[in-house]
Each structure stands twice: as structure tokens, then as C-alpha cells.
Amino acid sequence: MADVLNKVPDVEIDSDGKFKYILVRLKVKDGEAHKDIVRGTKSAEFHNHIFEKVNPAMQALGLECVCLGGGKIEHSNQEKKLRVFGESTGYGKADHAVTVEKLKPVFKDYEITWSDDKK
């Protein structure tokens, strides 16, 4: 069942712009195996809109989801920069350092930064 975790991409975010994101812990039901994933999109007005899409998809794979927090990502595809900041009113602030570590392998040639700034 743990191999199901490996099939879920660590990161799925919009290719450009400023948008909300959440850090989600996926766990195998009745097991110890888990991993954290990052999901973010401009189409989400609120952080819970992202979770409402992720949760059913992961449950269909037999995984449990817990939102660890949220924030915003500013993605400049042209400049190859990602900035992680802010917080979610509903879920609290994600650990941006963890988010950045998830982003690094996917965006190898990017400058990736994070801050506790809200804007």
C-alpha cells in the first residue's frame, strides 16, 4: 500500500502567478507510511477549496489526508523564482521550510525562498 504514496506527485502547483497553497499529509489507512504533498492553484478562492479537491481523490486511492496548513506561493516562470509566504485563515500557517524542500526537486533550476511575511 505504501507504493500508492509514491505514485502521488509531491507537488502540483500553477505554472505562474500568485496563488494559495496547502501542505497536506497523506497517510496509508491503518498504516504508518506517510508523506507530505504541496498543492496550489489560482482557481481556489480559499485554501479549503484546494483541500476539497485533493481529499476525495486521495481517499479514492485508499489514503487519508490531513491539511498541515497553508499560505501563498508567488511563481515567476519567466524569472524562475518561487516565493512561499503567508498563512491560511482556516488551516493556519504551513511550515514553509518543509514546502520549500518539497519544491526544490521539482524546480531544480529555480531560486526558491520563503518568509513569514503575510504579503
Automatic annotation (TrEMBL):
It comes from the Eukaryota. Pfam families: Ocnus. Signal peptide: none annotated. Coiled coil: none annotated. It catalyses: N(tele)-phospho-L-histidyl-[protein] + H2O = L-histidyl-[protein] + phosphate; N(pros)-phospho-L-histidyl-[protein] + H2O = L-histidyl-[protein] + phosphate. It is an enzyme of class 3 (hydrolase). InterPro entries: Janus, Janus_sf. Substrate binds at residue 20. One of its GO terms (cellular component) is cytosol. The active site is at residue 47. GO terms for molecular function: protein histidine phosphatase activity. Its EC number is 3.9.1.3. Exhibits phosphohistidine phosphatase activity. PANTHER family: 14 KDA PHOSPHOHISTIDINE PHOSPHATASE, JANUS-A/JANUS-B. Belongs to the janus family. This is 14 kDa phosphohistidine phosphatase.
